[in-house]
Amino acid sequence: MIDLVIRSRRTVTPEGERAAAVAVRGEKIAALYDYAAPLGAAEDVDLRDLALLPGLVDTHVHVNEPGRTHWEGFDSATRAAAAGGVTTIIDMPLNSVPPTVDVPALEAKLAAARGRCHVDVGFWGGAVPGNVKDLGPLRERGVHGFKCFMSPSGVDEFPPLSLPELREALSEVAAVGGVMVVHAEDPALLSEPGGPTYREFLDSRPGESERSAVAAVVRLAGETGARVHVLHVSSAACLDVLERARQDGVAVTAETCPHYLTLAAEQVPEGATAYKCCPPIRSGANRDLLWDGLGRGVLTCVVSDHSPSPADLKVPDFAAAWGGIASLQLGLPAVWTEASTRGYALADVARWMSAGPASMAGISGKGAIAAGKDADLVAFDPAAGAVVDATRLHHRHPVTPYDGRRLKGAVLTTWLRGRPVDGVPHGRFLWGER
Predict the structure, then answer these.
(1) Where are the transmembrane segments (predicted)?
(2) Is the pLDDT of residue 411 over 80?
(3) What does each C-alpha distance from 80 to 277, 351, 379 come to in angstroms?
(4) Domains in the chain: boundaries
(5) Which pTM was predicted?
(6) What is the CATH number of domain 54-366+396-408?
(7) How far does CA 16 lie from the centroid of its chain?
(8) In sequence order, what are the residues at sequence separation of 6 or more whose Cβ sits closer than 8 angstroms to the Cβ of residue 247?
(9) Where are the beta strands (DSSP E) in 167-300?
């Protein structure tokens, strides 16, 4: 018996768009049929010319609960995710208190999240100085891998690793499995902003700091055999290092974020610290090169790096404001707005925002509309347009650089494992595959 059929003339599969009827049995996609096939399902939804996408997988989300729930929490973050077509998130080990650097801290996070998740949620563990002994138990408990910083994280409870410490942690990751996801900026090339302006902030975090750190990560990955993933690439100066590593067979992948693909330093108004993030939004010319790297497969994932904070931490001083962009609900329309003007298709967006992140994090049941996958599906109107009103978002605080910006595309319905996300939390915890 088929429980649900969703039909669309623009069903986005791994092979591209096609007219299809997606048959769901229980929580899984049973099969794809011809668009008009009579299937006798208990429920039959016909989207006609609206697109049907796989649920997005966002592997870079700072939920901040417990400890900083007033910044964001599992209820608000996962509501925002579902409203943006994201059916799976993986939570970063900071900025929660305690950070997820050992099993008791992970248990505290699970207790905070239980019964509050509107989408499925997985977890990264943290790699910090002195906790190598905790990486194996965290992996055994089910984290997908580990997050580390090479430069200060912005919170005292999650310090960075030196290169010798990173080597030691990577050796352990190679032994226990999973992936190390790395915030790659070379602290030796960073400086304090000389003043409150965006230009001074941007100058304090040059692209060369990313390139230098990525080169070190590639070298250590090759030496230890660990699998590594470079987070939030903002500088196109990294692309040749990443491409060469891939050609050399080093197990290194990399991501970028919607804000690096859609915004530019020249557009940042002075005092508008909703745009502040680390590494920073760079020039329009740099943005074009990131798109080229994405198109060539040097960058394989586009994820949010949703890092929200209360409005009072976004003071109008780029030296003093909290660095983090809130965009979890807006990533799909933001990327589609820009991708569609550059000649990319919805199938490209699905590859970058669903299949790529699912593959990187080892989530085999997610990431595509295909038989056997979870029935995580999104009805999307690619032609719709609207001006973002931050006060209407599900994020806990109405702070985002997209406020007032016109974006293209609208999420109409999100199904999680065959069930519409309807305000009643039915998300599950996802555990790292061994």
Answers:
(1) none
(2) yes
(3) 20, 21, 16
(4) 54-366+396-408
(5) 0.98
(6) 3.20.20.140
(7) 22
(8) none
(9) 179-183, 228-230, 252-256
